[in-house]
Amino acid sequence: MVESHSDKTFKLVSHLLMIVLSLLAVLPIILLVTSSLTSNQILVENGYSFFPKQWSLESYMYILNNSAKIFRAYGVSIVLTVLGTVTGTAMTLLMGYGLARRELPGRRIILILVVVTLLFNGGLVPTYIVYTNILHVKNTFAGLLLPGLLMSGFNIMLVKSYFTTSIPYEIMEAAEIDGANEFKKFSRIALPMAVPIIATIGMFVGMAYWNDWNNGYVYISTNTDLYSIQNLLNRMQQNLQFLVQNASTISTSQGAAQIPSEGVRMAISVIGILPVILVYPWVQRFFIKGISLGGVKG
């Protein structure tokens, strides 16, 4: 089949547009990495550059002076992300599957309640009171885990739509005729056919836990051993800014003017996003399929 001139033009424009969008996404990351490997003096004098005049590891060496804390914070983040992703994804899948079942009693009311959570929330103060005075999660690992387990209404609707549109209702009816209960239908039929949406929701939940710093900021006040990598890096950046701004008045900050402040900020960002960059290529193909199928109205 011979392509028409308009089809070729459309493809060319589409490819050029995707190239531009891809560059807009990739170039800032490259600039971030090169800036973290640039001498701080060069950054101050010449600004950020893809091809710095002087390469340096001084920013990472400054961070590695706190390597014990960083490794501990990485461990907290890894455990939190794995446990939160497994638990949160399981809860989302179970609720999404239930809402996809036509015979579920009160299905429409539950759907309305889920949608309402997309528009309104209880606010920070009532939430803080509930978690600290009733659930007593302050300065505990649960303070990092539990607030994120309140399932995202958006994720639930994605799962519900996926189960509704991608798993034929007739298959579930046939399994029911063969004597399968709801647990068997969910575990042996629905889950094996839901790998794309599982990977998609898992990535959403995992990224939310990995990038979260708010729970640690709100619920971890004294037990700094429970800081996640995001909380620790945020605290390091605050301390760094304080030292630089008060270098002339604080005697203990001798040499603070020589701290690679600009480069450290870039290095902190690189350390924070590195695991996400490494994991995303493995789940990308499932992510695209899960979003496209789960986004269909069901």
Summarize it:
The protein has helices spanning 5-36, 40-46, 58-64, 67-100, 107-119, 124-134, 142-149, 153-166, 169-177, 182-190, 195-211, 214-219, 229-245, 261-294.
The backbone outline, from C-alpha atoms, is flat
- Beta content comes to under 5%
- The N- to C-terminal Cα distance equals 36 Å
Order of helices and strands: HHHHHHHHHHHHHH
Q: Helix- and strand-based class?
A: mainly alpha
Number of helices: 14
Report the biggest beta sheet as strand number plus sense, adding barrel if it closes: none
Unreliable stretches covering 5 or more consecutive residues:
252-257, 294-298
Helix content: over 70%
Secondary structure: number of strands:
0
Summed over residues and divided by their number, the pLDDT gives a mean of 81
* CA-atom Rg in angstroms: 24 Å
Brief descriptors of the model:
14 helices, flat, mainly alpha, 73% helix, single chain, 298 residues
SSE topology:
Blueprint: H1 5-36, H2 40-46, H3 58-64, H4 67-100, H5 107-119, H6 124-134, H7 142-149, H8 153-166, H9 169-177, H10 182-190, H11 195-211, H12 214-219, H13 229-245, H14 261-294
Describe this structure in words.
With 298 residues, the chain is an all-alpha fold. Helix content is 73%, strand content 0%. It contains 14 helices and no strands. Helix 4 crosses helix 8 and helix 13 packs antiparallel against helix 14. The protein is flat, with a radius of gyration of 24 Å.
